[in-house]
Amino acid sequence: MQKIISSPPSRNKVTSNHNFFASHTTLSLSLSLSSLFSLCVSLQNQNKLRRNRNKKRKKHTNLTQNCNPSMPCFTPHHSLLLLLLSIFFFSLSVTAARTSSFHSLRIQDGIEGGGEGEHYHEVLPWKTRRSMAEEEATSNASLILAQKRTTRKDPLDNFNRYTGGWNISNRHYIASVVFTAVPFFVVAAVWFVVFGLSLSLICLCYCCCPREPYGYSRLAYALSLIFLILFTLAAIVGCVLLYTAQGKFHGSTTSTLKYVVSQADFTAENLRNVSHYLDAAQKIGVDAVFLPGDVQKNIDEVQTKINSSAAELSSKTKENSETIKDVIDAMRLALVIVAAVMLFLAFLGFLFSIFGLQGLVYFLVIVGWILVAGTFILCGVFLFLHNVVADTCVAMDGWVQNPTAHTALDEILPCVDNATAQETLLRTRDVTHQLVNLVDNIVSNVTNRNLPPAAVPLYYNQSGPLMPRLCNPFNSDLTNRSCADGEVSLDNAAEVWKNYTCEVSSSGICKTPGRMTPTIYGQMEAAVNVSYGLYHYGPFLVDLQDCTFVRKTFTDISNDHCPGLQRNSQLIYIGLVLVSAAVMLSLIFWVIYARERRHRVYTKQFIEG
C-alpha cells in the first residue's frame, strides 16, 4: 500500500501561537505588578489620611466601630482579592488555550502498516486504481483515516487512546474530540464557581462589616482606569475579530459544501445522461434493423443500477451537506450573538463605571459573570468543531493517496459502487460497438450496393460514390481500436454522410444521385449521435470506476478550501479567547475602578468637609 505523505506542523505557526500566549502572559504579569504597586500606594495614602482626621474624629467614631464586638470581623482588601482572582483566571484561561488540542490542518498522518517522513506536496502517481487499493486493503492492513491526528483519549473507553481514525458516525471518535475541549469547560466551571463565591464573600463583608470608604490613591485610581480602558478596547477588538472571522468561516464552509454537492450532482447527472443514451439506443433502428434482444436486456438491467446509484449519490450527499450546514448555521448564530452581546456589555460596563453608576455596574457584573462562563464553553465547542474540520481535511489527504472503497468518508461524498461502474462501462462499450456494427452493416449491405429494382424495400435507386464506413472505436473484445483508412469517426460522420443524401420522389425513390434517403440518413444520424454520446462518457465512467471524481473533489477541497477553513477557524478561536479573557478582566476592573472612584469621591468630600 502506498504511504500517506504528510508534513509536520509549520515551525512558524507553532512559534506564532507561543508568541500569542506569551504576550498575554506578560500582560497578565505586568497587570499584577502594576496593580499590586497601586494597592501599596493606596494603603500608604490611607495612613496619611488617618493622620488628617483629627477634626472629624469624634464625628466618625461610631462609623469606625460598627462591627459587633462579640463577632470577629473579617475585612479583606477587596481590590486585592479581585486582583488575585483576575491573575488566577487569566492564567487559567491561557493554560487552557495552550493545552487544548488546536492543531494545524497540515499535520503528520499515517495508516496502518504505512510509512511517513515525506512531504505532503510531493507529486504522487495520480491514476491509482481503486480496485488495486481494494485488493491491498483485503490482503494487508485496512486504511485508517487520519490515524495519528485522531489518536486522543476516549472518555467512553476509560480514557484509553482512540485509534479508530476519522469517523464522524463513531461515538468514540466524537467523544475523543469533545475531550480536547475539556480545559475550556473546566475554566468555565471554575470561573463560575470561584468568582460567584468571591462576589458572595465581598457582599457579605460589606453587609456585615461596613467601613468608611476613605483612602484614595491617585496612582491606583489612574492605573485602574487605564487597565479598564485597555481591557474594554481588547474586548471590542475581540468582538470585531470574532464577527469578521465568523462571516469568513461561514462563507468558506458554505462554498465547500456547495462544491461537494455540485460535484455529486454533476456525477449523478452524467449517470442519468448515460442512462438516457442507453434508453435511446434501445429504440434506435436503421432501416427496420434494431439491436439484438440480449443487448437490450442487458441495457434494462444496467439502467436500473445506474438510476439507483445516481439517486443514492445525490440524496446522500445532499442530506449530509444539509446536516452539516445546519450545524454551521447554528454556530454562526451563536457567534454573532456572542459578539454583539459582549460588545454591548463591555461598552455599557465602561460607561457605567466612568459615570459612577454603581448599581448598574454591579448588575452588569452579575450578567457578565454568567456570559463569560458561557463564552468559555463556546470556546470549547468551537475548538471541537475546528478539530473535526481539521481531521476531515487530513482524512481526505490520506484517502486521496490511498483510495479505498467504503470508508467513513462515504458520509461526505460516497463513491459509486465499483461493480455498477464497471458494468456500466462495459455495457456502454458493448452498445456502442453493436450500434456501429449495425450502421456499418447497413452501409455495406444496403447503401453501398447497387441493388436491382426487384430488391424492394432495400432498393431505392441508390447510386453515386460509395459512402465511407463508420469507425468502430472498440474491438469485439471491447478493447480500444484505432480507425482504419477510409473510415469516418463518430464526431463527424453525420456531417460527412449528409453529402451522400439524395432527393426522393413521392414514392420514396431517389431521383438524384445519392446513397441514402433522408429517412435512412435520419436513422443513421440518430444511431451515430447515441454511439458518440456513449463513447463520450467513456472517460467519465473510467474515472467513476476508480473513484477519480471523489479523489479530485477531495484534492480540490484540501488545496483550495482547507487553508481558508483553517485560517478563519483560528481567527474565531483567537477572537473567542480574547473576548472571554478581556471581558473577564473588565468585570474585575469594573469593581476595582468603582471602588477607587467611590473612595476618591468620599475622600475629597471628607477633606473639604
UniProtKB/TrEMBL annotation:
What would be one Gene Ontology cellular-component term for the protein? plasma membrane
Q: Which residues form the signal peptide?
A: none
Could you read off the lineage of the organism from its UniProt record?
Eukaryota, Viridiplantae, Streptophyta, Embryophyta, Tracheophyta
Per UniProt, the keywords (alphabetical) are: Membrane, Transmembrane, Transmembrane helix
Which protein is depicted? Transmembrane protein
Q: Does the keyword Transmembrane helix apply?
A: yes
Q: Where are the transmembrane segments?
A: 20-43, 80-97, 174-207, 219-243, 333-354, 361-385, 571-594
Q: Which organism is it from?
A: Glycine soja
Q: What is the superkingdom listed in this entry's lineage?
A: Eukaryota
